[in-house]
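Crash report, auto-generated. Payload:
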Amino acid sequence: MISVNRQGEVWVFAEQNEGKLADTPLELMSKARKLADKLGVKLAAVLMGDQVSELAERLVQYGADKVYLIEHHLLEHYQANTYAKTLHDLIHKYEPQVVLCGATINGRDLAPRVASSVKAGLTADCTDLQIGDHEVKATKEVHKNLLFQVRPAFGGNIIATIINYDRWPQMATVREGVMPMPEPDVSRKGQIVEEKATLTKEDLLVEILDQHTRPKKVDLKAARVIVAGGAGVGSKDNFRVIWDLANALGAAPAATRAAVDLGFIDKDHQVGQTGTTVRPSLYIAAGVSGAIQHQAGMSDSQKIIAINNDPDAPIFQIAHYKICGDLNDIVPKMIKAIKERI
Amino acid sequence: MPYNCVCLIKQVPDTKKISGQAMNDDGTVNRAALPAIFNPEDLNALETALQIKERYGGTVTAITMGLPSAADILRESLYRGADDAILVTDRKCAASDTLATSYIISCAVKKLDYDIVLCGRQAIDGDTAQVGPQLAEKLGITPITYMEELQELANGRITVRRAIENGWQKVRTKLPVLLTVTDEANEPRVPAAKFIMKYKNAMAPIEVEKAIRNDNTALDEQAVKQLIEDEIRVLEEKNLLIKQWDLGFLEADINWCGRSGSPTKVHRIQSVVLTAKGSKEVEPTESGVSDMVHELIKEKTIA
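Recovered output after restart:
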């Protein structure tokens, strides 16, 4: 661990895969920018890889004052040990006060390893970050300007705010999609700081034999309108009504975990705590009961329409338009109304 | 070639089956509303370990840190085919965050002979997925997270398929290794009748003590202590004693355990109550739906 360092910077681990920056660290930049401004310190991105220097300018455009650029041929592919070792060394060299990672698979692999070796605190899967003061009840001691790490716990039934006031850096991973992506500002100027990684081949603990990625079948995060179906839709065949309404609106079709588990639609369409977090202008939930785990992924939608035949369905508590009735009757009426008006 | 597997398991509140309020009025978590279960993905980790034992030989040791009641999931592991069960329990473990937990468990695992350490990808109470990678770091062994399939185990090397963002990768590494296992990896078995028969009386010392004290309230302290000692010896001879380790036995540095070993602290906890601002009922009729659509088009929510 490092000691409390009020001059320390705010850092974002700028995850890149195959030379492309991941979305989550970019989403994090607007929030991290605000945190750094509030603390009166610089915001730095930490960029690692092999021949990735052209990404550094983009991080500046997204809000970084500084980019620590570490290029090494052994950093070409993400691996827990090489990346953790490099980030560990950099933390000890510069003593940042905050280190943030996206809660991607790599971020959730890297951050705990670094927190363990640095012996610092780490909060997983945050949905919000703030700066605030904390009073230790026993001693009345007040710690000012701490990172408030806000996250759901107990399956989303509670929201906990976690702090770390003595063993820094304050580390957190942040869920994908919970922070809006900032607009890049091409006129922004920043400083690129080149750093060296001290790695040998023995640091590569794993051989990557093969790797496959495919683009997601739907981009829920970018959709302005989403039409989601739940278990109440009844069958894969009947899920057609969700697709039809989505098509009529030019919307993205989505689903609850229950509907995905029942095989109504591919997992790429899943919204909720274990799926994608979305914040569209309009979210239409049909046959969705509104389990807390689903609400965690869509409650920030600007407008919510809920269609359900159970008047006590929890989804109605967060809906702006409540339609109590059979979705097989109501959805066609909506499609008709849309086609008449648009 | 046989492999010794150590499987980390956790007893968790069943966060998907909450009856009543998740929070008490005083802001603490209402554990009574949350039935305690075997963390789901830890069953996938145990299944992987049992399959390794069946295929290559070796042993499976289940280990958990928790309250005395966590002995339940150790028995559940024995019922499925684990050879040995260890309960790490100590009041001084209370309030441990993931860093302190991984330190305590690392002290326990270091006392064991292992080739492969397995954990579930994450536990459903905190969903942090942190203890596995932190434990690997503390043990100084290779971590492989998000394992979806064990493909090959030969010549001291392991090959697995693991999840990456929007895909998978096939990786190989030398043993020893720590795997975190996802629910894609396998279908966990149910308890076997023969193991239930064999282990139904298996108990940890703390459970033996509680049972004997309850049944013998009239006896004096010395007689009770004697009964407890005798019963523990009997269980040990029958191979039915769940091992119980405390921080003293683990020779753990207390500064790295419990509250003092945990950098993260809770500032505030709030119950989740989501409600919409300004909501309206829409009649499930053609005109009701049509008016709603018109309103949304007018305010440009629908383009």
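Post-recovery validation: The radius of gyration of chain B is 24 Å.
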